[in-house]
Amino acid sequence: MTDINPDDKDVSEHVRISRRKFLGSSAILAGAATTGAAAALLTPAAQASTGNSSATVELGELDEYYGFWSGGHQGEVRILGIPSMRELMRIPVFNVDSATGWGLTDESKEVLGENAPLNGDCHHPHMSMVDGRYDGKYVFINDKANNRVARIRCDIMKTDKITKIPHVQAIHGLRVQKVPYTKYVFANAEFRIPHPNDGRDIDSPENYRTMFSALDAESMDVAWQVIVDGNLDNTDCDYTGKYAYSTSYNSEGGVDLVGTMRDERDHLVVFNIKRIEAAIKAGKFTTLPGSDVPIVDGRKGSKLTSYIPVPKNPHGINTAPDGRYAIANGKLSPTATVIDLHKLDDLFAGKIKPRDTVAAEVELGLGPLHTAFDGRGNAYTTLFIDSQICKWDIEKAIQAYNGKKVNYIKQKLDVMYQPGHNHSTMGETRDADGKWLISLCKFSKDRFLNCGPLHPENDQLIDISGDEMKLVHDGPAFAEPHDCMMVHRSKVHPRKIYKRDDPSFATTVARAKKDGVILEQDNKIIRDGKKVRVYMTSIAPTYGMNEFRVKQGDQVTVIVTNLDQIEDVTHGFCLVDHGVGMEISPQQTASITFTADRVGVHWYYCNWFCHALHMEMRGRMLVEKA
Ligand code: K7E
Ligand code: CUA
Ligand code: CA
């Protein structure tokens, strides 16, 4: 293969086809068709014919959408501009970030908890809503690695709360209540464990359980938990505010691969939120050692839940913007199951059986994982094994399921390669606008320059505004954007500089007050036994202190207040050889604590470029023998 000339059309077509074969796809014909479509797309005419102005954002122009991207096991959330696919910002959450000092500063440690694990595994970012529409306030994100849920404040785009969910392992599916507003954040725990997990039942997997958790979106406390049968994978909720529902791929309770694939059907478990709240209010709950979170029993037979059998090892569950249907994606079945949400009231009233809520089981292709919507009655389902997006008409699919001879599949588009989630602009809200679709491909193979054995993922932008889906952009991404969401820019209004009373540094402000320090003007050292607090200001290109003096062994806290008022003039504070570095944006106060364990001269400097004399923005920490 090494002597293939990539300019030779026949050869490159040959390579392309064998690559798709290698990936297990039978879509050779479709592959050839895409080649043509992709080439045509690069011409302005092709773009105009789709109805979108352009996938290109002109120099100096702003994107139309904020994209919030999960950073996967990198532990962060990223902001992309859509449709340019430019990465605009990174928001550290469950990771350490040496640029901003996340995980190093006192303020971030207060959010993370002093002894927090500093790895994470983010999957599902979702924004808070009012009446089924984004409200621009918070983005929530799960941590599968350490059973946590975090909240990002969208006014400053920083993480402000992290909650550890008790009694469960592997928080995976995460969604917000859409209606009437985001009172709850729902979180699925994927793995089953003994309850309590104190050494009992290790060898009795039949006694393992998992739970569905609801967090109060404002306090971020866990409001309640529901014990379920099977496991929990993804979750979503409806547009009445009454129900949430989660897929379970392990209704079998298996502890190995074969065990989780034994049955032809698993289930979707539906949670009746009002009944759960009423049960807790009536005191019908238990608790487990180590927390006082009320726990209700939602296993089969409970009035709080209902179990709808769906084919096999379902993964994504997605509610259509019209509020009528939810789509459970089959994964090991080539089907998606359409649930009629209008029948859930009857289901819980005992008037119908769980399977009566199934409006259709739709054959789509191999490996359906997630479905997105355009607000025009179409669904877009990722086919992992086929490496395709399948566009289909929901109403026609229901007609076909009921015996009518109609073609519900509108188009299958090849993507490169192996898509997991996809997401449409505003598509998880009532405002689904059907403009752009992102296919988050798990493999990029040879779409990019080879950077070694570890490959980037490939986040592909697809124009869905016209009748035909058109692939317009390949976006390499570092591990691993499981999911994303795209919010119109009119919904999000971040600040440009901090307010002095921002709660993110309120604790530091309170401590300064106790020390009698006015942060906005004082440059002062407060000694408190072996604890030394060094308060200084910064205005480009100087710190309020050129030097400060401490004793060996002192525990030193440096508190910097950035007095600059000008947008984008962020300073840093980095102390050489001490693991100390942080961001101080305009009007922000930030602090960091370390031990001055070595006598001598230690320089500190500004590590965010701020001024022509940025290099000169520095000073000395002088450490004397104790
Ligand atoms: Cu990777 Cu939503 Cu965690 Cu699907 S999830 S692919
Ligand atoms: Cu201040 Cu660079
Ligand atoms: Ca199963």
Automatic annotation (TrEMBL):
It is an enzyme of class 1 (oxidoreductase). Cu cation A2 binds at C606, W608, C610, H614. Its cofactor is Cu cation; Ca(2+). Keywords: Calcium, Copper, Membrane, Metal-binding, Oxidoreductase, Periplasm, Signal, Transmembrane, Transmembrane helix. It is found in: Cell envelope; Periplasm. Residues 530-626 are annotated as: COX2-like. Cu cation Z2 binds at H123, H172. Binds 6 Cu cations per subunit. Each subunit contains 2 copper centers; Cu(A) (binuclear) and Cu(Z) (tetranuclear). Cu(Z) is thought to be the site of nitrous oxide reduction. Binds 2 calcium ions per subunit. It holds the Pfam family nos_propeller_2. Cu cation Z4 binds at H482. GO terms for cellular component: cell envelope; periplasmic space. The keyword Transport does not apply. Its EC number is 1.7.2.4. It catalyses: N2 + 2 Fe(III)-[cytochrome c] + H2O = nitrous oxide + 2 Fe(II)-[cytochrome c] + 2 H(+). The chain crosses the membrane at residues 22-42. One of its GO terms (molecular function) is calcium ion binding. Nitrous-oxide reductase is part of a bacterial respiratory system which is activated under anaerobic conditions in the presence of nitrate or nitrous oxide. Belongs to the NosZ family. In the C-terminal section; belongs to the cytochrome c oxidase subunit 2 family. This is Nitrous-oxide reductase. It comes from Pelagibaculum spongiae.
